[in-house]
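Please fill in the sequence for the structure shown.

STRUCTURE ENCODING:
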């Protein structure tokens, strides 16, 4: 499969919503995505099948003072375990590699072992727990962090 990565646009909202609803028990609303796509402090990347232009997965990131916060990552169920999330995160690290002072952070459900393994493989480390973070079932979230220096060294 040939995958193209590009910035998400408002015209992608319907496809984003379809993947989001199938991926999460408490999905983001269309307006939440539209807001993130319009924010100057956010980055949004989509992975598209090259021939059909079908959205396969996406990544939404917000820039904060000391970190890039991975807000949302999702891949269409039929496309999981094919490296799409890894491709999106690798592109994030490439695009932000000149930002020497910001690391990367995210929260992930403690039960999402596959995602935790992916993030660890990309250099993230557990830094804490947010108790009762997820509103659907009060599940805890693991707070993960990746240092900026590590990100630059790996992309060199």
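FILLED IN BY: designer on duty
SEQUENCE:
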């Amino acid at each position: 499969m040939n995958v193209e990565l590009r910035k998400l646009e408002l015209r992608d909202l319907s496809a984003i919503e379809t993947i989001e609803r199938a991926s999460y028990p408490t999905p983001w609303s269309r307006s939440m995505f539209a807001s993130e796509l319009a924010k100057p402090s956010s980055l949004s990347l989509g992975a598209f099948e090259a021939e059909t232009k079908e959205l396969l997965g996406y990544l939404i990131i917000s820039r904060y003072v000391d970190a890039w916060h991975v807000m949302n990552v999702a891949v269409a169920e039929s496309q999981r375990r094919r490296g799409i999330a890894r491709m999106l995160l690798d592109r994030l690290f490439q695009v932000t590699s000149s930002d020497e002072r910001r690391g990367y952070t995210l929260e992930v459900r403690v039960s999402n072992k596959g995602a935790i393994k992916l993030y660890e493989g990309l250099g993230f480390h557990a830094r804490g727990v947010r108790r009762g973070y997820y509103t659907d079932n009060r599940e805890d979230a693991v707070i993960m962090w990746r240092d900026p220096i590590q990100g630059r060294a790996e992309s060199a």
